[in-house]
Design brief:
disordered N terminus, eleven-stranded mixed sheet, Isopropylmalate Dehydrogenase, 2 domains, alpha/beta
């Protein structure tokens, strides 16, 4: 992921530009955009199309979508529009396009995240798999040498050991899809020693043992690690922690949603980081964006979905051979 994007993408984080450029080399994907009834969600989807990332299918009340397009001067006539009655119906019909094998990803529009995710995980008509669904932030942190994946900060509130194992597997798959040559997973806690007084340290140790026994594969794992000695070589050296992950982690697994949410927002608002978001573990990736996201961040979220879809396509083709 070293090429600069050959586009007029907006200025911003260099890592996101490289990510978009890499995704542009893959086949663009069809994406069901659920309820794009405001200028932000609609313009993000159309811009991702212009950059060769996605072919959007717009799912929502037709007149509301057309009104949003008129307000910002967008021509949406080239795009398929699937009519729905309201936001819940938009979510259900967008998921229905997945079950009909018409799209390779979902994208959140101007509806609540829980509306879309309720349709994704529904017992009837949902698109769950055996893998636990989880969220990853792909964070472009200024002065940090590579993107940081932070998980899970949006879906699993207090995940148990089995859920955390799936959260890690999803993040490893994402890191490989993004082209990372080496995935280094730090399982975070408040400290780097195992103690019964801090249950997350015990779970971190158990997850590392699971990796040792081949239950989690595709990455180097270490934990428990505190945040400083997970990402700072100097902090790891001071604590005399010797491991291939300490000080060099590119995946940060948090103890629970509260910790993850605070970590991601601290990086965003105090360190100036951008946070592209994606949900994994369903039959297709789900692009989750916020109204507060910049256009570049929205495009990076789409780029991540493109790379995930490409990796799944490749894996499916390999399994057939």
């Amino acid at each position: 992921m070293t090429d600069e994007p050959k586009t007029d993408a907006p200025t911003g984080g260099d890592q996101y530009k490289r990510l978009i450029a890499a995704a542009q080399k893959a086949t663009r994907i069809k994406v069901a955009v659920a309820h794009p009834c405001d200028d932000v969600s609609l313009s993000g989807a159309i811009e991702a199309h212009k950059l060769g990332l996605i072919d959007p299918i717009l799912v929502g009340p037709p007149e509301r979508i057309r009104h949003a397009a008129r307000d910002i001067g967008l021509d949406i006539s080239p795009f398929e529009l699937v009519a729905s009655a309201h936001s819940h119906d938009s979510a259900a019909k967008a998921v229905g396009l997945v079950t009909a094998v018409r799209v390779e990803a979902l994208m959140k529009g101007s509806l609540h995240t829980d509306e879309l995710m309720s349709a994704v995980v529904a017992r009837e008509g949902g698109i769950r798999t055996e893998r636990r669904i989880s969220h990853c932030f792909v964070m472009d942190v200024p002065r940090h040498s590579e993107p940081l994946i932070v998980t899970d900060a949006a879906v699993n509130i207090i995940p148990d050991l089995e859920a955390k194992a799936d959260i890690i597997r999803n993040a490893i798959d994402l890191a490989h899809a993004m082209g990372g040559p080496e995935v280094r997973v730090a399982i975070l806690s408040a400290l780097e020693t195992v103690t019964s007084k801090v249950p997350s340290t015990i779970e971190a140790a158990a997850l590392c043992k699971m990796a040792d026994r081949g239950q989690i594969t595709g990455a180097l794992l270490d934990g428990p690690l505190a945040l400083d000695n997970a990402i700072s070589p100097e902090a790891a050296a001071i604590k005399k922690i010797v491991s291939p992950v300490a000080g060099r982690a590119n995946v940060l697994v948090v103890p629970d949603l509260e910790a993850g949410n605070m970590l991601a927002k601290s990086l965003s608002f105090l360190a100036g980081a951008d946070a592209a978001g994606i949900v994994l573990g369903a039959r297709v990736p789900v692009i989750l964006t916020s109204r507060a996201d910049s256009l570049l961040t929205r495009l990076a979220s789409c780029a991540v979905a493109v790379m995930v879809a490409a990796a799944r396509r490749k894996a499916t083709a390999s399994s057939v051979l």
